[in-house]
Every structure is written in C-alpha cells, then in structure tokens.
C-alpha cells in the first residue's frame, strides 16, 4: 500500500510503500522533528530534532545515540546516551545544572531500569545497584565518606530521595521503592518540614510539621492531610 503525505503548502514530505520509505515529520508548529527512513510506520534511520530545530540524536536501525539540553538553557546538557523510538533506552548519563553526572546506567523506555550509579551534587557516589522503573530496588547507599549506610533489597530499606533538580527532599524508610515507615521531609533549602510516619508515599500516622525548623503542627495525618492534632496558634513567619 502506498501512502503520500504533504505539508500545508502542498509539498511532498513523506512517501511510504508498505510502511517503508523516506520522509520528513513536522511538529504542531511546523518545525522539523524527523528526517529519514521509516519501516512499518516507525522512524528507523535518520535524524531527530527538538522543538527548536536543534539536532538531538541520530537513529540507526531504530536505535540512536544523542544528547538532550535543558529546555530553558540550550547550553546545559541534561542527558547523553542511547534512545529507542525517541525515549531514553539503553545506557546513558544524566547531568545536574552544575554539569556534574548525577546518574549513569541503564534505561528502559524513558525510565531508569537496570544497573546504575547515582551521585550527589558534589559528585560523591550515593547509590549503586539496580533500579526498577525509576525506583532503587537492590543495592547499597553510601555517605560522603564512601561508607555503606544501608542496603535496599527488593525495594525495601532506608534511603534518600531527591527532586528533579537533585535537591535532597526525603530520608527514611521505603517499601517496594515508595516512602513507607518513619522518615523526614525537607524543602529545597534543606529545612526540615516533616518528621513522622508515611504509608504508600504519603504522610500517614503520627508526625510533626515544621516551618523554618519551628514546630507548627503536632498530631496525626491521613493520606497526606492533617487529621487530628494540635496546631500552633501563632506560626512563625505567618
């Protein structure tokens, strides 16, 4: 079966025969996002571009290697490695805003999956082991001196969690890779904001809530919300 596609000006951009052929693909704003060969309707060999028409990686037989930059700063590299059908897949590295590696290892369709190493903003190793769909699953965590501080087995154990900008936001217990048990939460300025119990990733049970390290609530939480307890009458900085 033959299929031809045209742009808004009537120019031929893609000609496929039984799902095979060469062509160009454009985004919703008319920007070129792919140029090359298709097989069975999938991008197979060619070059992929971002929304600003910057080349990001090349596909070879469905696989490719390339780089991603921050959407607000094209000079800041955030990832380099392998892709499959436009998603991080295979081996790669992630970088923070200071150009330091924060993760190197294996990916599966956009998620950390397989063996890998995680680093803090100073470049110190903080975890080495196995990931399962972005969750630390089996391995060891380390302190700044390189000493093992805990072990995760099948997603269970103690650990630390970071946000997308590698800010340290949680330390405590995990169950199947999710916050469960006793733990502490921090804001991006490293102030303690909660100390208590968690279940299934949310505050559940007894805990204390803080603002600028001052206690503002003491009591019981249910599914992340205050449930029963005592709220400070005049919270600081309010």
Key words describing this protein structure:
238 residues, mainly beta, elongated
Shape: elongated
- The low-confidence runs, each spanning 5 or more residues with pLDDT under 50, are none
Computed over alpha carbons, the radius of gyration is: 23 Å
Query: Given the structure, what is the number of helices?
Result: 0
Instruction: Give the spatial strand order of the biggest sheet.
Output: 3-4-5-6-7-8-9-10-11-12-13-14
Q: Major β-sheet, in short?
A: 12 strands, antiparallel
Proportion of β residues? over 45%
Which structural class fits the helix and strand makeup?
Answer: mainly beta
* Beginning-to-end CA distance, first to last residue: 68 Å
Q: Summarize the amount of helix as a percent range.
A: under 10%
Structure write-up:
- The protein is built from no helices and 21 strands.
- It has strands at residues 2-6, 12-17, 21-26, 32-39, 42-49, 55-60, 63-70, 73-84, 87-95, 101-108, 111-119, 125-132, 135-142, 148-152, 157-162, 168-175, 178-186, 192-199, 202-211, 214-222, 225-231.
- A 12-stranded antiparallel β-sheet has the order 3-4-5-6-7-8-9-10-11-12-13-14, with no helix packed on it.
- The radius of gyration is 23 Å and the shape is elongated.
- It is mainly beta.
- The mean pLDDT is 85.
- Helices cover 0% and strands 68% of the residues.
SSE layout and pairings?
Blueprint: E1 2-6, E2 12-17, E3 21-26, E4 32-39, E5 42-49, E6 55-60, E7 63-70, E8 73-84, E9 87-95, E10 101-108, E11 111-119, E12 125-132, E13 135-142, E14 148-152, E15 157-162, E16 168-175, E17 178-186, E18 192-199, E19 202-211, E20 214-222, E21 225-231
Antiparallel strand pairs: 1-2, 3-4, 4-5, 5-6, 6-7, 7-8, 8-9, 9-10, 10-11, 11-12, 12-13, 13-14, 15-16, 16-17, 17-18, 18-19, 19-20, 20-21
